[in-house]
Design a protein that fits this description.
- It is a single chain.
- The chain is mainly α.
- It is 73% helix and 0% strand.
- It is built from 14 helices and no strands.
- Helix 5 packs across helix 14, helix 6 packs antiparallel against helix 9 and helix 7 packs antiparallel against helix 8.
- The radius of gyration is 21 Å and the shape is globular.
Length: 339
């Protein structure tokens, strides 16, 4: 059986599987330097990690939905109504306070991040012979790799990082629960390793991309949340390991992997410099959105005006969150396949 790469072995390894391992290697080699960067927070660190990767990846969804005429027409009702529903939901949540709004969005974001890793794992397992036990074991392992670190976050001492804002998650410090969770986590991962080894020897086939994405998920989530208690390290592992693979997946499957007739006007992105144009579009939209956040809400990294918009936060925050909120929800539908 051939390895079930999504695009090609080289591109998958570099842009989908590789980011988790690359960032983790950088963190261990340059750990002291990373700490000094965090102590002297840089505008360019924020620009690269948050704007050019985290915010930009949200807009990659456009190239699978709104920018593709045939797909927009096919799913027109959902694509029009969902942003409206997200905005109205945001208004209601914000009316109970900004913490309620950001807390809700944080839980949705965590679920989205977890499901993305599940999705990649399922894509790489698509050619395997599926039995109830194999599917159950794969699912249990990828969820253990992601859910355990989040539960550790909820039940451990206070972490030095947030998903969005302080006190966004339920927390109940309890060492006994952490002990039980750790042994359950270790048992699941050990069982997966043993079963995978037995099956690989028996079938004489080892699924490199699937097992690599599982290993990368285990390492990035464990070291980003459990092992290290560091804001910049968490951001590096969280943002890079999530954003770059998603942007790569959209380009490889929805642009490079489709015929010119299927993607219509987006066919020009299939040219030799198409990926650079694709990245440029994402970065431009992302910077435009973040500029609005800075101008109307945060005023942390870009100072343009001294006008006080605090009285309009109830409207501005839900409105500016629509692309992000829509991406979290929409992503749960657009990748589903009968196969």
């Amino acid at each position: 059986m051939e390895q079930p790469w999504i695009h090609k072995a080289k591109t998958d390894s570099l842009f989908i599987i590789g980011p988790s391992f690359f960032v983790l290697a950088v963190i261990f080699v340059f750990q002291n330097y990373i700490t000094s960067i965090e102590n002297n927070y840089s505008f360019y660190t924020w620009l690269f990690l948050i704007v050019f990767i985290d915010v930009a990846h949200v807009y990659a969804t456009l190239f699978k939905t709104y920018f593709v005429k045939s797909k927009f027409q096919k799913d027109r009702k959902r694509l029009i109504l969902l942003p409206v529903i997200c905005f109205l939901t945001g208004l209601v949540l914000f009316s109970f306070g900004s913490l309620v709004f950001w807390s809700f969005l944080a839980y949705v974001a965590v679920f989205h991040f977890i499901r993305q890793q599940y999705g990649f794992m399922r894509l790489y397992a698509r050619k395997e012979e599926k039995t109830r036990v194999s599917v159950w074991m794969d699912n249990l392992t990828i969820y253990a790799a992601t859910v355990y670190p989040m539960l550790f976050w909820f039940f451990s001492s206070k972490r030095k990082f947030n998903w969005f804002v302080e006190n966004e998650f339920f927390r109940f410090e309890n060492q006994a629960i952490l002990e039980i969770l750790f042994w359950a986590y270790s048992a699941i991962l050990s069982l997966y390793v043993i079963r995978t080894t037995i099956v690989s020897v028996k079938t004489k086939f080892f699924n490199i991309p699937k097992n690599s994405i599982i290993l990368g998920t285990v390492l990035s989530w464990y070291f980003g949340i459990v092992y290290f208690n560091d804001d910049l390290i968490f951001t590096l592992l969280n943002v890079v390991s999530h954003g770059i693979p998603y942007m790569a997946l959209v380009y490889f499957k929805e642009i490079d992997g489709k015929t010119s007739n299927e993607i219509g006007a987006l066919a020009y992105l299939k040219r030799y410099n198409g990926i650079l144009i694709y990245i440029g579009i994402l970065v431009l939209i992302a910077f435009s959105e973040e500029f609005l956040w800075e101008f109307f809400v945060w005023n942390e990294n870009i100072t343009v005006s001294n006008f006080d918009f605090s009285g309009w936060q109830f409207l501005l925050v839900p409105l500016l969150s629509v692309p992000q909120f829509t991406h979290y929800i929409l992503d749960g539908f657009i990748w589903k396949s009968k196969n």
